Amino acid sequence: MSQKRIYILNGHPAANSLSRTLAESYARAAEAAGYDLRIHHLSDLHFDMDFERAGYKDIKPLEPDLEEVLAHIDWAEHVVLFTPMWWGSLPAKLKGLIDRAFLPGRAFDTRHPNRFGMPRPMLTGRSGRVVITSDTPTWFLWLAYRNPVAATLKGHILGFVGIKPVKLTQLAGASEATPGKVVRWRKKVEALGARGA
């Protein structure tokens, strides 16, 4: 019996980052457990971040790297996204990837809406995991802001295109994380990778 196919996207735009460290720790543990995996680092992907269109009638062609991201999502049974939270949201390049690649006819279907009149998701049959690093304590994100980045990723983006359920791991105090804390976080994501979770 084949192992679960896992696609990992490190959504930090820098070549070296805590997100990259955690994504690679997850990947090593998943690979050691026998899972079939593919990984992208956002810093290695080349594409125009700007959608630059007023609607979906005139869409500029996707660059090869964006086509590859979509191909890996199509291939995967489980999608794992690592991202920092910046200004309560996603890094601009990661948001640009989503704006450009999650298109009608590729990620959702506007021609055949569901019974509520909403676009039909086209990436169903896949589960997800989002690992968010932030400086803001997680309890404060929930109390003061109702954790908008988590709601956006789980509901408005991944859930909208059919990737569900999406489980969430939040790691706070990222900018000033001590080496010991980073080790604990790596062990945490390694445990997730070993379970393909």
UniProtKB/TrEMBL annotation:
Entry-linked Gene3D superfamilies: 3.40.50.360
The name this protein carries in UniProt is: Putative NADPH-quinone reductase
Signal sequence, renumbered to the chain: none
Entry's InterPro entries?
Flavodoxin_fold, Flavoprotein-like_sf, NAD(P)H_dehydrogenase_qn
Q: Which family does it belong to?
A: Belongs to the NAD(P)H dehydrogenase (quinone) family.
Q: Which GO terms describe its cellular component?
A: cytosol
Which keywords belong to this entry?
A: Oxidoreductase
Give one GO term, molecular function aspect.
NAD(P)H dehydrogenase (quinone) activity
Q: What PANTHER family does the record point to?
A: NAD P H OXIDOREDUCTASE-RELATED, NAD(P)H DEHYDROGENASE [QUINONE] 1 ISOFORM 1
Q: Which Pfam families does this UniProt record tie to the protein?
A: Flavodoxin_2 (PF02525)
Record field: transmembrane = none
Every copy of the Flavodoxin-like fold domain together lies at 4-178
